[in-house]
Amino acid sequence: MNATRRPQLSSNTAVVAARKILQRLHEVMAARTPPQVKLNKIVSIIASELSSEVCSIYLLREGMLELFATRGLKQEAVHVTRLALGEGLVGTIAGTINGLLIAYGKVVPFITTLAMLASARGLAEIIADRKTQIIRSQGFLDFFQAEPLGIPVIVIIFALVAVRARWKPAPRSFPACSW
After folding, report:
1. Number of other residues whose CB lies within 10 A of the CB of residue 11
2. Which 3 state secondary structure label does DSSP give 6?
3. Distance between CA atoms of 89 and 107, rounded to whole angstroms?
């Protein structure tokens, strides 16, 4: 078996990278700027950290998903582009499959979501001939490849989310934005 081993990164490197990203997002949120300016900066930070050409934020407003901020799409589309919930072929198919598995297959919703994620990623790899998005941001890679205390960061994040969900359930819907 000729397995490629990824280099072990120090947990200190991951912590520094995570702090840098979180510091940038904190600065945006703490600034006394209008919400639209904050959203524009957030998509810019996320796109640059993921080395992505396109990053968008859609928010639920009046029962529709509205494009609120984007990097990589036309700026004229912001607050003009709206999608109905479930609109789009891919979302409709995935939602229908998930719903059927949950309702009739008695599969736990969380497991169904993870299975759909894995299936969609696998299909994307097949369609793209294994030429999927390459993340070049060293800070992002350092953060998610680290294993502080010998535990992968993604497992720690999952555990924190699970504990948080156990203490206080997340809201089932997002209120319409007033701005």
Report:
1. 16
2. coil
3. 23
Q: Which of 94, 88, 82, 32 has its CA nearest to residue 56? A: 82
Please give the Cα distance from 41 to 26 (Å, whole number). 11
Distances (CA, A) of 74 to 48, 49, 69, 174: 17, 21, 10, 26
What is the reported pTM? 0.45
Domain presence at residue 175:
no
Q: What is the total count of domains within the chain?
A: 1
Digit-by-digit pLDDT tens for the chain (179 residues) are: 444 444 444 556 656 666 777 788 889 988 999 999 999 999 998 788 766 777 888 888 888 888 899 998 889 999 998 888 766 666 677 778 888 888 888 888 888 888 888 887 787 778 777 766 667 778 887 887 888 888 888 888 888 877 766 665 545 544 444 43
Report if residue 2 sits inside a domain: no
The range of the structural domain enclosing residue 71 comes to 11-167
Kindly give the interhelix angle for 11-30 and 35-49, rounded to the nearest 10 degrees: 160
Tell me which amino acid residue 114 is.
L
| CB distance 28 to 42 below 8 Å | yes
